Structures are given as C-alpha cells and as structure tokens.
Amino acid sequence: MAVLSKTQFSVTKPRKSRVLTGFMALYLIYTLVPLAWLVINASKTQPDLFSTSGLSLGGTFALFDNIGQTFTYNDGIFFRWLGNTLLYVVVGAGGATILATAAGYGLAKYRFPGRRGVFAVVLGAVAVPPTALAVPTFLMFSKMGLTNTPWAVLIPSLISPFGLYLIWVYAADAIPDELLEAARIDGAGEIRIFLTVTLRQLVPGIITVSLFTMVQTWNNYFLPLIMLSEPKWYPLTVGLNQWSAQANGAGAQPIFNLVLTGSLITIIPLVVAFLLMQRFWQSGLSAGSVKQ
Question: Which Pfam families match (predicted)?
C-alpha cells in the first residue's frame, strides 16, 4: 500500500486580499459608527447633547432616565406608537408573507394561461418604488374613506412583489415536482400538499421574505405620513419625527434626548429578529446558488 506524504493531504488556504480586507474594515466602521453615536447620545441629557462631541460621553449617564421619560412623555404616546407599529408589522408584514408564499408557490409549480404575463407584471412591480405609488394610493383611499385609519397602512403593506418573486424563484428549485406527484398519488389534495409538504420545504424562503417585509413595514415612513393625520395612529417613524419637529417654530420645545432614546428603542426589535432568524435568513439567501 502506498504511503501518502503529508504534502498530499495539505489543503491550500485561500489567499487573503489586503484591499478587500481594507474595504470590509471601512464598511464595518461605516456601519458601526452611527450605531455607536446613537447609543452614546441616547445616554446624555438634553444640555449634554450640545455641550459635548457626538462620540464622547456626557457628564451624566442618563440612559435609564431618558427611557423612562420616553415612555411617559405626553401621556405615554410612545407606547401607542409602538403598539401601532407592532400592529402594522404583524398584520401587514405577516399578511404579505402569507400571500407571497401562497402566490409564489402557485406560480412556480402550476402551469396556466397568462403565467408569463403575470411574471412580467411582478417584475415590473418590483422595479416601481413604493413612493411613486403613495400619492395615487392616497387619492384612491381618500375616495373610499379609508384615510386616517389603520387600513390605509395595512392594506398597501399586504402587497410585496419582491417577496412574491423571491418565493417564486425559491420554490421552483426547493420543491421537486416528483415530491408533489408522490403526494398526489398518495391521495393528498392540493391544500393538504401545500400545508403539510410545501411549507416545510419553504421555511428558509419564508423567513427571508418575512424579514424583508418586517423591516420594510417597521421603517415605513412616507406612506403613514401622507395617510394619517391623527397622532394616535402614527407608527414610531412618524411619531419620532413629530417629536423632532417640536424644536422648530415659535414656542419650540426640543426633546432631542427623547428622540434619540426612542430611536434606539425602535431598532432593538429589528436587531433581535435578525439575530434569532439569521441562520434561516442566510440559508434562504444562498438557496439556488449551487446546482447539483
């Protein structure tokens, strides 16, 4: 038996590019510095915000006091805005994920007349920015009497062309046609196949779509801004902007320390969601990148 030398078992390590490493370091700094700035300034009092530099601590560590004032200011309106945002995310982003999953699976695995036309419409919808549809949507909802109600934000949030396209592409490769045929031979109906067989295979894609729709709905600003006029229906994005606007005009009452603290609280749920679903998200993005 031939004896193999150690060199035959050695694995060549990938070469490191100093240029790419440098770019990644710059990108990391670019990403973390604004977050560090937000955390540091959320721990300052209102006077310290203007008497100290952005990346230095203030004379008093006031983070917990700022958090308490944020939740109690103006009769606790921040709680209402947080609840509104959760409502828009759970119903809007959750509904968009469900609709995108069902429609994407149907378009990927069923053949019917006009399928290519639907594909073209979906691609066109992906290319249209949401802000371009905000004014026509407002005019239509105004005639229907839905403006200044949660429905004016929830209904548009249910449509996610990009989520539909992503599920469509993912389902085409992730679900073998032979698996569906085997289920049909066993006597399973189409609804049962979708609920018991398909959904398990689509979990990475569903998680990916839910993350994208959740972030889009959570950070949605322009649509609620033009649809809502009552502060009680504001999401966090519009509400914090209203607090920031208090520093302008006659009788200005700046509360920048509460705006910064509220912004910090706002991003925590998104960070937690990404950390909890990271492995599903990564597998969903890499799906289809390697062909067997």
Answer: BPD_transp_1
